[in-house]
Amino acid sequence: MAKLPTVAIVGRPNVGKSTLFNRLVGKRLALVDDRPGVTRDRREGDAHLLGLDFRVIDTAGYEDEDPDTLPGRMRAQTTAAVAEANVALFLIDARAGLTPLDEEIARWLRTGSTPVIVAANKAEGKAGEAGTMEAYSLGFGEPIAISAEHGEGVVDLFEQLLPHVEQEPEAEPETEEHPLRFAIVGRPNAGKSTLINRLLEQERLITGPEAGITRDSIEIEWQWRGRPVRLIDTAGMRKKARVQDKLEKLSVADARRAVDFAEVVVLLLDATLGLEAQDLRIADQVLQEGRALLIAINKWDVAQDQSSLFQGVRAALADGLSQAPGVMLLAVSGKTGKGLDQLLDAAFELRDIWQKRVSTGELNRWFADAIERNPPPAPHGKRIKLRYITQVGTRPPSFVIFGTRVDQLPDSYKRYLTNDMRKTLGFGAVPVRLHLRAPGNPFDR
């Protein structure tokens, strides 16, 4: 595992360094007291700030004392911490304003090569405004106003730290590939079991012209070109109003559970029937569960007017599945084997996209560009300000956008961001979950 970048928190005694350290690591690891000089040894912890992971060092309060004294030896520990850090976070007390010791620390920091960010702590309310403005005179650029105790100012802290601590996503170590969980769903008699038998090259599942032969969801371990696959055959899913038999209800519920545990789901259409409303309902259920979706027209060997059929289904999907524009459509035949290798190729590729993580830097560069090209609206003349975005999960890719008045952001603008993200960041038609959040206390994980 790559070594995390390091942030050293420095400042004179009692400016809130340990409080900020505890906030960033999410635990009360450092002792905090109103008396100055509580911290003596430097303490380290793993910090997580809105998608940024780094190592943070809480240092002793800097004091101008003889090197042989205890405060002098504590200062030597601080000096060592700053020298090994990627960036120094220089804390001042915004309420107290600049002191001669703050200016002495600034002179010392300027003698080194470590980049410096100035943060004016205890800046909640208006009492800290003057001290924050004073910090400009330290010569380290624009100071950021924060409150470590109340969790304020995290957006600015995030933006200032990002260039210094961002890491590209680490390549996954070479490990044994886990099986692709690949579920096949569709209406009764769409040819799901026949297709699986063709893949396996054996009559593993009972098939026939009668609809509804498969009742249980059947999982089969299999290898495709040396790659493990867990094939999941499911019962046909009819329109809910038509499902009266208790056993059929259980079978359909079992099929839905199979979708929950799948990674990639292929919805099989019957080429002799085309696309029906029930197919769109099934597709929507798959997407609502956050699963990667493929759509395949089966029985292609007996399809009439193939070109017209394919284009007609594609157009209907564009209208009926607007939440997943560009979902992949394939033509296959469980009877002849046509298109099955292409289907598996697409499934593995789709799983890779479904579990992809984008670096915080790349994500926010895209975000800034998307907002510049098409700014958010201003309902009632009040601008909606979107500050930053972070990826909070994969499988499916999930993101949180922080900003002001986000509750007033129209759905049309959310769709714009989602679709632009799909296009620019390469998420294609996999489900993308986008959540909006006002800052509140964004130090909380």
List the helices and strands and how they pair.
Elements: E1 6-10, H1 17-25, E2 43-49, E3 52-58, H2 70-84, E4 87-93, H3 100-110, E5 116-121, H4 129-134, E6 144-145, H5 154-165, E7 180-186, H6 192-200, E8 218-224, E9 227-233, H7 246-261, E10 264-270, H8 277-288, E11 292-298, H9 306-320, E12 329-331, H10 340-354, H11 360-373, E13 385-393, E14 398-404, H12 411-425, E15 433-437
Parallel strand pairs: 1-3, 1-4, 4-5, 5-6, 7-9, 7-10, 10-11, 11-12, 14-15
Antiparallel strand pairs: 2-3, 8-9, 13-14
Helix pairs in contact: 11-12
* Shape summary: elongated
Largest sheet: 6 strands, mixed
Report the mean per-residue pLDDT as an integer. Answer: 84
Q: Ranges with pLDDT <50 over ≥5 residues?
A: 29-40, 205-216, 241-250, 441-445
Number of helices: 12
Number of separate strands: 15
Strand order of the largest sheet: 2-3-1-4-5-6
Compressed to H and E, one letter per element, the order equals EHEEHEHEHEHEHEEHEHEHEHHEEHE
Question: Which range does the strand content fall in?
Answer: 15-25%
Give the class from helix and strand content and strand pairing.
alpha/beta
Q: Please tell me how large the radius of gyration is.
A: 29 Å
Q: How far is the first residue's CA from the last residue's CA?
A: 23 Å
Helix proportion: 25-40%
